[in-house]
Design goal:
The complex is a heterodimer of chains A (about 500) and B (about 625). By secondary structure, chain A is mostly helical. Chain A has 2 domains: about 1-190 and about 340-490, no CATH class; about 210-320, no CATH class. In chain A, about 70% of the residues lie in helices and about 0% in strands. In chain A, strands 1-2 form a two-stranded antiparallel ribbon. Chain A is globular and about 75 Å long. By secondary structure, chain B is an alpha+beta fold. Chain B is built from 21 helices and 20 strands. In chain B, a hairpin with a 6-residue loop joins strand 18 (about 530-540) and strand 19 (about 545-550). The relative contact order of chain B is 0.11. Classes of the chains: A mainly alpha (about 500), B alpha+beta (about 625).
Chain lengths: ~500, ~625
């Protein structure tokens, strides 16, 4: 009895109020943005249940109640029930595919009563995070063991597949955020780097494939991708194998050869330098194979694979791109700025840019935005909510939101690092990586930097499901954090 | 259990977050701080400037009689998206069109090539300017025609059947007018002719604007800043013309079936009391949507009813011009009041002959004016041009003569406040040097009697009357007496003095008085007031033109007038009696029963002009 009282008192003192403060700032700020985005000229009452701003107050209020309730649930419960929750959630996701009505082509919304709908995908994240925490906290789990990492990745891919089956590809992509957590837990960084390299190859290669270097029959895209393939491969040999002799040899051959070819092309006969670069890459791959066989090191083999992938990437994607559906290809082309299509596929992003750009330094003021209020920006109160911030609060406001987010994420990193057990840390990293991923994709797409993937901006976008989902995610972790000192007693 | 091995990777993750946020802040700065383009595109998107048209100023005559006013008209508008379950048959019958016309019109609205601003959410013009009666019927059934609306506009209406040339008309602006003046947008109305055109800036007022917010579909969502930046329209200024509507009506009546012009001026003020151009047309023809067809029809008419002959037609002034010659010769000392020239049925010298009618000879200036002696004025000009004491050569003499004419308002535009004035023709030395090379007084002598190269507009002839009535000056003739809340241009109030002194004018006045008492203008004589006048019978290719120039009363003249009837024969045939009736109407305010009878007979005396192009 006394122990329990002490415990709950201790918990209250150990709650991280700073995070809660940032959370409240974001929710209130978000509510003002929803007001701006949903302001209806015929119904100017911001608190009416008829308006989205009025509803958002209810969602915010219930979130606080939810947060309070979550603070009462002990960590022991999650420790025990993690797999059960995970299993139940997967079942719910699967059931949703079957019973959810078709809304705009996706089957992800479950109607509760007449006016409220929930999206199970928003709630599945915490279940996956808990299950991953539990899994990795098990004695003997090692991320370097193929079996263990296989189970972890399987746990991530299962909900992804279910959500993709609901036709909510955007929400499914969020689960890639867990790989950041795996990286922190010791997964080799080369995997992360390979993913990054793929994105860079794709963007640069596609965007500049039709542009040519002045006076030379050389595609900038192809040239750059091949050059990057050389730099990345040589860099990996340097970082992972510390074989300086090989690095020097490869660097001199590749860059020297490329430079000579370019000079020849400029001053003698113009020709496609890429052929020479392709040859140099193949030479490099052969050398790596020799190194791998000679040294008997798996690292060389992996780097060789990377080099082969890098070299062939441009040619493979180019071919694939040709075979894409028209609307998908146009979407990619618009995103990369290769096509200007302000009325069609680029409409959303273009209008979003106009809305944000018209905000200027200080913005137009609360409820004075015109673009978002007049519905030039589609999905302005959900996925494109950041437009309202940009238009009404200007550069000051939107940069402010980003900085608060940065502080929030940094704070969560600090909290995750101070956890005394693996489960707390893993769960904490899952939470912050999800927030980071949402921020990256959502704000990026509004600014025209990332693809238009329909995922909400946490705490800002209108909607009960997402707000509850993020609150759930966050406050389970805050409770875990509050308990961090108890175990020692 | 802390995982110390990989703890440093937290910095990688924190760094990734930092890099993302920094990239986005840089991008925001680029979008929001460096580029003004987005701002203007946002405004184009969202602001809809709803123009509120001011009421155009109305126009009154000098006695406050309403001439031109505005009347509401109704456009039928349609919002395509809202058109549902339309009973097309009923609809077409209500507004009096056929099913086929309906289909064509709808297709035209939907054609984005011809209607670039088309949106299914906004009002599109279905049919312009339906009448009040049609509107009444349509309004009753409107509730059944979903998606159709009524938009009110005003159209220009005329309260008079007269004054068509003076009042002019309004119509949609042309592309060039839009480009020339920022005020106009396509579809606006602008004065095209007459006072509507010359006083366009006063009449039109200032457009107001409501700044409305428009959503992505073009639907109006509300007022920007609750209308704080809206501007109210400023109504146009009302005009009071110097025209006397009754006098104008009489003039148009008397000129029925004839071609020509009557211009009357109040000498003291330069105000134009009437300006009749015949043939004329009913100003109602220019109302509303029928304007373009009516206009086309009139432009094809060989009688050219659209031409304002009073200011755009030039005619030989004939004998009315002799008064100006007498004044010039007196001032230049060529003649005195007692100088007499012989005239034996004309001016005859060195094989040259200008015919004249029978009268006593030789005779001095006053009877020469009264009897309209050709010989006298030919001799006068002959002596002037050949006077080598005053002028070095004939060129100098001619230039002096021209200067006198110009000082009397000839040869250049008078500057009346109506569009389309022409300058007429006063030849000068240069002109003859070029035309004739070597020339002498005899070769140009016919200008002394208002023939030959000399042409004047009826307005200039009337202005000559006003100058004589004023004994030596005129005020620029103008047609607008008052602008409500404004003032008329100073240039219209300038007093122009001629080069001739008042004492010589008194002699000419005496001659014109004699012409009425016992000369060519006898039929204008009346016991009610002293009329002064001068006939004109101008030769031309066809039958002579009949002209009259005069004023009354002799002292403190109230009206100066010019009457010009094309191919009317002697001045006394049409010119004098019409002039007399006009003066009576203006001075007495009405016609006596006897005059009324005469007016009716002149109204029905038509001149046959044939159908040839002129």
């Amino acid at each position: 009895m006394t122990e329990q009282e002490q415990g709950s008192k201790g918990i209250f003192l150990s709650i991280d109020w700073m995070t809660i403060m940032l959370y409240v700032i974001l929710i209130v700020w978000g509510w003002f943005s929803v007001c701006g985005a949903c302001y209806d000229f015929n119904n100017p009452d911001l608190f009416s249940w008829e308006t989205n701003s009025g509803k958002q107050i209810v969602w915010g209020g219930t979130s606080l109640v939810l947060a309070a309730v979550l603070m009462l649930i002990e960590k022991r419960f999650y420790d025990t029930a993690a797999y059960v929750i995970y299993g139940a959630m997967m079942l719910l996701l699967a059931v949703t595919i079957v019973i959810a009505p078709d809304t705009k082509g996706s089957r992800s919304w479950l109607p509760l009563g007449s006016s409220v709908k929930i999206q199970p995908a928003e709630f599945a994240k915490f279940a996956v995070a808990l299950a991953l925490g539990k899994l990795m906290d098990q004695y003997g789990f090692s991320i370097r063991k193929t079996k263990d990492i296989g189970i972890a990745i399987g746990m991530i891919f299962l909900p992804m597949l279910l959500i993709i089956a609901q036709k909510e590809t955007g929400s499914a992509l969020v689960y890639f955020a867990f790989f950041l957590m795996l990286y922190r837990e010791g997964m080799t960084g080369s995997l992360l780097f390979t993913g990054f390299a793929c994105v860079v190859y794709f963007v640069v290669g596609m965007k500049f494939s039709e542009d040519y270097i002045i006076d030379m029959p050389v595609s900038i895209g192809e040239f750059t991708v091949l050059l990057l393939a050389m730099i990345f491969t040589i860099g990996m040999v340097w970082v992972y194998c510390k074989n300086l002799r090989a690095v020097k040899l490869m660097a001199y051959t590749c860059f020297g050869g490329t430079l000579l070819a370019m000079l020849f092309s400029i001053y003698a006969i113009p020709f496609n330098v890429c052929y020479v670069m392709l040859g140099l890459c193949i030479l490099m791959i052969c050398y790596l194979i020799v190194l791998a066989l000679y040294n008997r090191l798996i690292r060389y083999a992996m780097i060789t694979l990377f080099a082969i992938m890098s070299t062939s990437f441009f040619y493979i994607t180019d071919t694939l791109f040709e075979h894409l559906d028209d609307h998908q290809r146009i979407r990619i082309e618009v995103l990369l700025g290769m096509k200007d299509d302000p009325r069609g596929a680029g409409y959303n992003v273009n209008q979003a840019k106009i809305a944000i750009g018209s905000g200027g330094l200080f913005g137009k003021g609360f409820l004075n935005g015109t673009q978002t209020k007049l519905r030039y920006v589609p999905e302005q109160h959900t996925d494109f909510i950041f437009c309202t911030v940009g238009e009404e609060e200007g550069f000051i406001g939107s940069a402010g939101v980003l900085i608060v987010y940065l502080l929030f994420i940094w704070r969560l990193i600090a909290l995750a690092e101070r956890q005394t057990d693996t489960m707390g840390r893993v769960y904490g990293y899952c939470v912050l990586c999800i927030f980071l991923f949402h921020l990256f994709i959502n704000v990026g797409m509004v600014l025209g930097l990332t693809p238009v993937i329909g995922i909400p901006l946490p705490f800002f976008s209108y909607g009960g499901s997402s707000l509850w989902g993020f609150t759930l995610l966050l406050f389970i972790f805050l409770r875990m954090d509050a308990e961090r000192n108890l175990k020692r007693q | 259990m802390k995982n110390h091995v990989y703890e440093n990777r937290k910095y990688v993750l924190a760094g990734i977050a930092l890099v993302i946020v920094l990239c986005y802040i840089i991008r925001l700065a680029f979008l929001q701080l460096s580029d003004e383009e987005y701002k203007s595109r946002a405004n184009d998107n969202a602001f809809f400037n709803n123009v509120i048209f001011p009421a155009r100023g109305v126009i009154y005559d000098r006695n406050g009689e309403l001439l031109v006013f505005n009347q509401p008209a109704y456009d039928i508008m349609v919002i395509m998206r809202e058109v549902k379950n339309l009973d097309t048959l009923d609809f077409c019958q209500t507004i009096g069109i056929t099913q086929q016309q309906f289909d064509e019109r709808m297709a035209l609205i939907k054609d984005r090539n011809k209607n670039p601003g088309y949106s299914t959410y906004t009002q599109q013009l279905f049919m312009p300017q339906i009448s009040a009666q049609e509107y009444g019927v349509f309004q009753e059934k409107l509730f059944r025609f979903h998606g159709f609306y009524i938009r009110e506009r005003t159209i220009r209406r005329y309260a008079t059947d007269h004054c068509a040339h003076i009042l002019g008309d309004v119509a949609e602006v042309s592309q060039t007018e839009v480009e020339r003046d920022d005020y106009y947008d396509p579809g606006d109305y602008i004065g095209k002719q007459g006072v509507e055109r010359s006083y366009e800036t006063e009449l039109r007022g200032v457009k107001g604007v409501q700044i409305l917010l428009r959503d992505a579909h073009g639907r109006i969502q509300g007022h920007y800043r609750n209308g704080a930046q809206d501007r109210k329209p400023i109504p146009g200024k009302n005009l009071t013309l110097s025209i006397d509507a009754k006098l104008q009506a009489l003039g148009e009546r008397l000129m029925e079936g004839k071609m020509g012009a009557i211009v009357a001026i109040e000498p003291k003020t330069g105000e134009i009391l009437c300006m009749v151009s015949a043939p004329s047309y009913d100003p109602h023809r220019m109302e509303g949507k029928q304007r373009s067809t009516q206009m086309m029809e009139m432009q094809r008419d060989p009688m050219k009813p659209m031409l304002n002959r009073a200011i755009s037609g030039t005619y030989p002034p004939g004998s009315t011009f002799k008064t100006s010659q007498g004044l010039t010769f007196l001032q230049e000392g060529i003649i005195t009041s007692s100088t007499a020239y012989p005239c034996y049925r004309g001016f005859v010298t060195k094989g040259m002959r200008v015919g004249c009618h029978g009268h006593g000879s030789p005779l001095p200036l006053i009877p020469a004016i009264a009897t309209s002696c050709n010989g006298y004025f030919c001799w006068g000009l002959y002596h002037m041009l050949n006077n080598r004491k005053n002028y070095k050569n004939i060129q100098e003499a001619m230039t002096t003569w021209k200067d006198y004419m110009v000082s009397m308002g000839f040869g250049y535009k008078l500057g009346v406040d109506l569009p389309g004035e022409v300058r007429g023709m006063i030849p000068n030395a240069d002109y003859y040097d070029r035309r004739l090379g070597q020339w002498n007084a005899l070769g140009v002598i016919s200008i002394a009697i208002g023939q030959g190269e000399v042409t004047l507009t009826p307005l200039q002839i009337a202005n000559l009357g006003a100058t004589i009535a004023n004994r030596g000056y005129y005020i620029t003739p103008h047609i607008v007496k008052r602008i409500e809340g404004g003032h008329i241009a100073d240039s219209l109030l300038v007093k122009h003095k001629t080069k001739v002194e008042k004492q010589y004018y008194d002699m000419v006045v005496e001659g014109m008085r004699k012409a009425v008492i016992g000369g060519t203008c006898r039929s204008a004589n009346t016991s009610m007031y002293e009329v002064c006048g001068k006939t004109g019978t101008a030769q031309n290719r066809g039958k002579d033109h009949s002209a009259f120039m005069g004023f009354a009363p002799k002292d403190n003249p109230k009206i100066a007038i010019a009457v010009y009837v094309e191919n009317g024969g002697f001045g006394a045939t049409f010119g004098v009696p019409i002039g007399a009736l006009m003066m009576e109407q203006f001075i007495n305010g009405k016609l006596s029963p006897a005059s009324e009878a005469r007016a009716s007979s002149f109204q029905s005396r038509h001149i046959d002009y044939g159908t040839r192009e002129r």
